[in-house]
Design a protein that fits this description.
By secondary structure, the chain is an alpha/beta fold. The chain has a single domain (about 5-185), classed as 2-enoyl-CoA Hydratase, Chain A, domain 1 (Alpha-Beta Complex). It has helices at about 30-45, 65-70, 70-90, 105-115, 140-150, 150-160, 165-175, 185-195, 200-225, 245-250, and strands at about 5-10, 15-20, 25, 45-50, 55-60, 60, 95-100, 100-105, 115-120, 125-130, 165, 180. The strands form four sheets. Strands 1-2-4-7-9-12 form a six-stranded mixed β-sheet, with helices on both faces. A two-stranded parallel ribbon has the order 3-6. Strands 5-8 form a two-stranded parallel ribbon. The radius of gyration is 17 Å and the shape is globular.
Length: about 250
């Protein structure tokens, strides 16, 4: 499939494993590879499992060095590809399971939010939308995605304050559906496969469209109206402040 994404299909279940060998930065190349993997899954699978192949890291999020370099064209392409990928995953006509076994910085969190079932592994991991903490305004599509999945009491803490959450608090906020110890995560994934394997796919597709249609239209509108070239032009190169953990992770790229 790609050096960045591993794809496998077994008994109708597609597994997409993100693995760039470092911290799974959502670069343009990574987003292209994930989109190609979704195309494969949509053509031949009845269920999708999305996870990381790197211990302790689901994804370090968008490549902040592109933002910091004030590259408007690359920034726009990267964010738009990420937004389109999340929207596509949100409406995929099959059950989807996202597995968080490590940190999930914003674009990683967006992908998890777009999955039908979100499983989390207990540990000192963080997920959320920390854009305001690094001097970035959360893109409108991300706000709509968060609004569609998070409990209202956590929206301000997430979007406006940039709070990041460990798995148990992420469960309370609505980022995750279930959190289990590390030694139980594979069993939990297997149980999801068994449970979701009995779903009638045409009914699932229609139900998903009815439930998420309004949110997906809002995200579509946000992508079209918010993600334009002028959104990333004239930003000072020093405007983006890389958080300590993300900086340490992404500087290894």
């Amino acid at each position: 499939m790609s050096e960045l994404v591993n794809y496998s299909l077994e008994e109708g279940i597609a597994e997409i494993s993100i693995d760039d060998g470092k911290v799974n930065v959502m670069s343009i190349e990574m987003l292209k590879a994930l989109d190609a993997a979704l195309t494969c899954a949509e053509g031949e699978a009845k269920m999708l499992v999305l996870r990381s192949g790197i211990e302790g890291m689901f994804s370090a999020g968008f490549d902040l060095k592109i933002f910091a370099a004030n590259d408007a064209q690359q920034s726009l392409e990267m964010v738009r590809r990420g937004a389109e990928l999340a929207l596509r995953l949100m409406g995929l006509p099959m059950p989807t399971v996202g597995v968080m076994q490590g940190h999930a910085y914003p674009m990683g969190t967006f992908l998890l939010l777009a999955c039908d079932v979100r499983l989390g592994q207990q540990g000192p991991y963080k997920m959320g939308l920390n854009e305001v903490a690094i001097r970035i305004t959360p893109p409108a599509f991300a706000v709509e995605l968060a609004r569609s999945r998070l409990h209202p009491a956590f929206l301000s803490r997430t979007v406006v304050l940039g709070e990041m959450f460990e798995p148990d608090d992420a469960l309370a906020a609505g980022f995750l559906d279930k959190v289990v110890p590390a030694d139980q995560i594979e069993c939990e994934i297997a149980e999801c496969r068994d449970l979701l394997g009995s779903i009638h796919l045409p009914s699932h597709k229609t139900a998903k469209q009815r439930l998420r249609g309004e949110a997906m239209r809002a995200i579509r509108h946000a992508i079209d109206e918010d993600l334009k070239p002028d959104a990333y032009e004239n930003r000072h190169p020093s405007a983006v402040k890389l958080p300590v953990r993300a900086r340490a992770s992404q500087e290894t790229q």
